[in-house]
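Example 229, ligand flavin mononucleotide.
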Amino acid sequence: MKIVIIHGQNHKGSTYHIARMLAEKIKGDIKEFFLPRDFGEFCVGCTKCFMESEKKCPHYEKLRPLTDAMDEADVIILASPVYVYHVTGAMKTFLDHYGYRWMVHRPQGSMFRKQGVCISTAAGAGMKPTNKDMVDSLFFWGVAKRYQYGVRVAAVNWNGVSEKKKCAIDKATSGIAKKIVNNSKHVKPGIKTRAMFWAMHFAQRKGFNPCDAEYWKSKSWTGKKRPWK
Ligand SMILES: Cc1cc2nc3c(=O)[nH]c(=O)nc-3n(C[C@H](O)[C@H](O)[C@H](O)COP(=O)(O)O)c2cc1C
């Protein structure tokens, strides 16, 4: 299996170690990117990706290695420490660049056959909204199976995490890895993703944005064809 990890920070703290631990348990080829080291541009709000083409984004080429790695991966891991109850700014600006890939616009067909994991750690609280920041993108990209793991580490770095907590993390990551491996042979989107796609396929028949409508038509998704079949 191909695994890509997008780290929402440059440093190797608790979030890094947990994401890495999970990826190693899935046992595959691991590619990883660190934000903002490998991509740190802010969306300029030109909306060219939505209205014309993602290739017109001023950051398209810079983002491309990360985009290609995600498109090739079977498993996408998004990991971020909690910063004031949400993802890091670096993770947020990364995700902003894929708004055009949301199901309401031009989702990539391969996403509907992938699994995705959101991992966050906090000293005390905020894992839920932080994982939601990331899982919203996975869902609207069409990622078929999504897992979330938030850990209250009660520490500001990995060395400060207690042995008891590390044991619990080890157990939890083994459980998620097992599910991912077991599901890998038959990855199909669940009812929520199918329902969203169904609603979008009607919207795209009317075609409020010509660029999106043309895309859906070219994939035959406005008819009976589906990207997971
Ligand atoms: C800017 C900043 C904001 C933070 N905000 C929160 C927060 O809202 N809630 C919390 O419990 N911890 C917060 N923390 C602590 C980290 O989330 C926590 O230590 C996390 O496990 C760090 O992960 P890392 O070791 O991967 O960097 C914050 C830390 C920083 C640097």
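Summary: The beta strands are 2-7, 29-34, 75-81, 115-122, 145-152.
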